[in-house]
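Why does residue order matter? Because the sequence determines the fold. Keep that principle in mind as you read this record.
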Amino acid sequence: MSIFSSQSVITEHISEADLRAYFVGFDFGKYRYDDLTKVLMKAVVDFAFGFHAGILEKYTDEILKEAAQSIYNIKDFSEVKWIYVDNNSSLSDEDLKNEKKYLKRGEFGELILHVLLRDFINTIPLLSKIYFKDTDGVTVHGFDSVHIGKNAFGTGDSLYFGETKFYARANDKAGEAGVKDLIDDVKEHFKRDFLKREFSLIGKKKYAYLPLDDYEDKNTIESYENFIKQKKYWYQKISDAEKGTITLDSFLNSVTIPLLCTYESALLTKYNDTNNPDFLREYNEQIKDLQTIFKNNLKLIEVELGEPIRTNLNIVLLLFPIPNKKELVKLLHEKLYHRANL
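Structure:
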């Protein structure tokens, strides 16, 4: 079921167990930035609050304002808004490599991943980092998303630990840089010590949800009750993995890892019609080239005794080229900041 109706704007051109590729088209030759931004804005409440306050499929302007404000209460987003909107600039490659690397969150890569997971893979958010970062100032987890849903094959339930990159490069190598850096995330985040810390942080939020007895929306209470059951199951699994009552190996068998690279691509400035056969041919070539780069780099990760074998993880690579990162991020901040200050 589509939550944000993003399929009317975002095309999922490739849908495979280990690869999904997306693009947004044009209207009379103009890239559909406005339409894409509207879809992403629809997801702001869901992204910011998750299911911690219940299921908020229908909400007032006041709730949307609260969600926007909660995002700007986080330093990452407020500083990036200043860079892209107030200063009409953007984060440089050096910024991201050095002391300003943390600001990548304010560029909405996590929001884009949230929409793709919700609408195209039909997951539901287990935790919202924004919700807890706003309320207690403590990062809940190191992953860019923690969702639950069916696995990539549709054969069983899965916990989703997602990571994102959102890149622009002057040499049109943004996609290549992004997929290579996603490999670094796999190296760093899927190690025993990191995972154990994450399990502990996630576990501390076990009761941070609206009690079923306090749930008032009769139209969605059945869905929320089902979510509470799923939540209980996954928190128990996470607790078992942390305590060692189940092996980390068996736990990771039920984890899916969506890795999203949203990247600036010259293809979407070279063409202004995504139905053009030449565009589709070059797009397919680009996607397959990036998948090959990703797989080749994944193979280079050394196997360490007692550590997860990263090449065996249930990874789904998501690729989403756009024509201009600065334009999209600036537009999103303008609209979100306006909502926060209505």
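The longest strand covers residues 157-167.
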